[in-house]
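Case study B.
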Amino acid sequence: MEITTHAGVLSFEDAYETVRAYCGQKSKQLRMRSEEVPLLAALGRVLAEPVIADRDFPPFPRATRDGYAVRSQDLENGPATLRVVGQVRAGDSYDLPVAAGEAVEIMTGAAVPPGADAVVMVEYTVRKTAKHEIGRAGGEAQPGDAGNADDIIGIEERKNRAVATTVAEELIDIQRRTSAGENVVPAGAEAKAGQELLSRGLRLGPAQLALAASAGKASLNVYRKPRVAILSTGDELVDVAEKPGPNQIRNSNSYSLAAEVAACGGEPVQLPIAPDEAGKLAELIQEGLKADLLLLSGGVSMGKFDLVEQALTDLGATFFFTGALIQPGRPVVFGETGTVPFFGLPGNPVSVMVTFELFARQVLETLSGSGPATLKSAKGRLMKEFRTKTGLTRFLPARITGGLHDPEVHVVPWQGSGDMLAAAQANCYLVVPPDRESLAEGEMVTVVIH
Ligand code: AMP
Ligand code: MG
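Model:
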């Protein structure tokens, strides 16, 4: 979809696609510079430079089980008895080739010795000690030469000693056929040296940090955090630390938005509250446009003192839409001034969170270098019939509960889009398509997870 200047009210889908198209077209222009940070500090950040394998992954043929490294040919015809000629632990270097009829005791994570091509799990083996009389005529017995059960020495070596002695041989009976490659991950099977392990634009979670660590990266090159200005507007607002007058309310949107921004990998910049007065509002908007993204809350409805759109127009803004057919959040505004994108989010506390989730998050993700992720959704069974009116796509505070199988969706009772308690009890939004008057009890419904 092309981004065009609709400056009108769009369906949810069109508004959503408009934001994604903007992200697609502007991704290079919007992306931040990069910086080097210590590995752990890179959690949640976005890679600005690929991570390359400094050696093969795994670097050696890795045993994935405790057991015996064997030559699969020796076990081609089913059960066999092999001589245990050594032991290799994780971290050991064991270079002696495994010869026909031999096995080497091996631990998980150890390098499979040359010659061996499979590992038989210890559970499929029976270990035993066999005593043999071996020796050569004329040989002189040496003190201490008698074998014992702990002495793992090959028969050949025993024979070479010109002695007649009883040797104890360590043997294993293996009860099952074993094929080449069993319980062994070949060197380089996961990645070859020089291969890209993590690509640029990837958001780093625990698994990605672990992989970077295993490639020897003590620090990573990540994109700088985008700065997101947050500007709450409204004459009725006071700061949290202030005592509100009887008809005033505290500025909570500044905190929900700052928290959303921080959780999404941005750096929130909370501006002072803007009054519903054109001059001061314009001044603070200009301040906000110094950031990489500006999020306004309030002042975008149809009221006499909803001055945000006019103030942005006066500053030469381009509008991509000035409303979406959704509830809550219908008056949401999206546009750009110069190269700085902005959202005018409706002031109601639930609306502000829903519209951040549906639209603003995508631009923030693009700024942070990862590109917009799609909405996270899940399916669950609606536990109670829900009735509404057609015409708007609704995103209503709900709870999804239960385990992996048959999750349950409960709509949280609310007093409308100003009901912060409902928002605080919710862990998702129930999606009601615009053509549905009701959703039936027991129906499988979609929720957006946040
Ligand atoms: P508005 O979008 O400016 O018409 O505001 C809609 C509703 O949201 C009104 O009830 C406002 O008082 C409330 N509201 C606006 N901004 C905030 C804010 N920053 N924090 C909490 N509530 C707000
Ligand atoms: Mg207002």
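Residues 377-449 form a domain with the Beta-clip fold (CATH 2.40.340.10). The remaining cases will be described in the next quarterly update.
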